[in-house]
Amino acid sequence: MSDPPLLEVGGLVREYALPRPHPFAAAPRLRVLHGIDLKVEAGEGVGIVGESGSGKSTLARAVLALEPPQAGSVRLRGMDLFALSRRELRAARRHVQAVFQDPYGSLDPRQRVGRIVAEPIAALEPGTGRAERRRRVADMLRDVGLPQAEGKYPHEFSGGQRQRIAIARALVTRPALVVADEPVSALDVSVQAQVLTLMADLQARLGLAWLFISHDLGVVRSITARVVVLYRGRVVEEGPTRAVFAAPAHPYTRALVAAVPRVGRVRAPTSLPAEAAPPGAGCPYSVRCPRAAPRCRAEAPVLTRANGRGVACHFPG
Amino acid sequence: MTGAWRSRSLIAGGAITLAMIAIAIVSLVWTPYSPTAMDFLHKLAPPSAAHPFGTDSFGRDVLSMIMAGAQSSLAVALIAVAVGAGIGVPLGALAAARGGLLDDVVMRACDLAFAFPALLTAVMITALAGPGAVNAMLAIGIFNIPVFARVTRGSARGIHARDFILAARVAGRGDAAISLIHVLPNIAAVLMVQATIQFALAIVADAGLSYVGLGTQPPQPSWGRMLNEAQTFIWRAPLLAVFPGLAITLAVLGLNLLGDGLQDLLDPRLRRAR
Fold it and tell me: pTM for the full model?
């Protein structure tokens, strides 16, 4: 038996309670994640793609141990995050950090950058001396290209610079895994490239793994080696990023790839009609799928893996 | 309203409030006469050079009494606001951080407290617990708790929805640390404005309680009781009621202007519109 993978998500189910229709009714539940399986190895960049509502961010929150799932597990180096004691969880948090989407909302406007970046050290490594903390914050800020930013407030920085500060905060405890939830989608395209280059550079230099969540396939292609496609809280396809985008096996992935706008190309109408009725037993994508057959409406396909790729479709290819 | 007017309200309110604090402090060491010294030869005297605000029915100097009365008004209001904020702010912050059932219970309890007319219940509390400045402080303070709890909870929830709170959780901070480090500094401005408004209301409430004899007890002078005593002589010495009335009005006006001005100063949205 080899070492357990860095991150292993198994059968993750997450439901949210909806408002009760009347005070004595049981609260109806909305299932957002329907049993997600996911593995990330050390040093690996894994992309999670899917449209709004596919459960990407919910998955991120579960991996960050912010919201407990209804079923399934999130294991970090074999430790089940939701079975740990409070103290053990705090120790585990040193190894998983996060970068959030909105660079304007993810930094406390009342704190100076030095204090923001030092927060994970202060909270997760309380034994650290003041001088060492200051040195590590300075080193980290230099690594993200913002030397001597400690004394300034977040509002003195642009969106791209703020995201660099957020990256510095995420990496200051030298985590093994960083969950990045749409880290560049709020930035200008030119700034996106800079931040992505920085992230790829830091990944190579520090040997960290990214779980990179995005709806932007171009961004995912540029920074991840492996990709997982989510649809309505289920994994519909996974595999090496290049191979999946070059030859998508699932009709949903194909629609996503085809939807990437390219100059000069006449686009075939790949309209994705809004989902009509929630699917019962059948494939959740069958309502939108151009190739849906009677079998698709009767029976949900399971994810089958072969040659490092996996797809959940009765008629892949 | 224009910005110039707004900053004027801040300056005027600040000046009045500072003057009141200064008068209260000066009165600790010096008043023209002793505020309790009676002089039956000169009772109910109209304003004169010797007694700028006149004398009351016991011949006490009204100016000295007004000055000393500022002490008890300020002390009662200050403690009442401190009690209200000291309990209400943590309660509201906790409700916002935890949410769920605890949030519901705290907020419904606040609704319940709001259903009682504050001053009447303060009268009831002091009537049951016995009159006196300390009980007045507590009675007024208790009714400040839900006000602070609600304001804190409302603004804190807005802060909790922001990503830097998630980042702090990922960094291993618990509810208490997040509330102290991230939430309170971000809502301090709102709380300060609310405290100023509550301070003004507490002065009115204190005056009301001492007017009906449940607040500060004699011989310590208080504005409310001066009003009450002046009532008997309203036809013989109408000015006797005017001075404590003016003192209360001015104190409340100053605090309200200050709160108004602070709000605009601390609210970046309104400042940008300037």
Answer: 0.83
